[in-house]
Amino acid sequence: MNRIVAAKELVKLARELTAVDLRSQLHQPAKADESLGAAYNSLISFKRGFDSMDEIPPELKIYYSQVLKAMDAVSDARQHTNQLREMTKRLAREV
């Protein structure tokens, strides 16, 4: 019987340690979301340089196209990190 009690106590302790580790990491999705927001803002600033031109020279159009692709990719990633951020807010209340 003592082994069963000891095993249950170990399982309980393991769960508590895991919860503590998880709680200490719940800020990471918000941090990632903020970093992607900053990256998106940087890309917008770069794009504004092109937008300020009357006409984008042919040799720079490939860069303009690439910045648009990068903005799209960062925007998609940001949607996921924002969703995860909201999910972890709910989790933080439960843990």
Give a written overview of the molecule.
This protein has 95 residues and is mostly helical. The chain has one domain. The protein is 84% helix and 0% strand. The chain has three helices and no strands. The two termini are 31 Å apart. The relative contact order is 0.13. The mean pLDDT is 87.
Number of domains: 1
Shape type: rod-shaped
The number of helices is 3
Our estimate of the beta-strand percent is under 5%
Arithmetic mean of pLDDT: 87
Secondary structure tally: strands: 0
User: Which residues sit in consecutive blocks of at least 5 with pLDDT less than 50?
Assistant: none
What structural class do you assign from the helix and strand content?
A: mainly alpha
Helix content: over 70%
Order of helix and strand elements from N to C terminus: HHH
Biggest sheet, in brief?
none
Alpha carbon gap, first and last residue: 31 Å
Radius of gyration: 23 Å
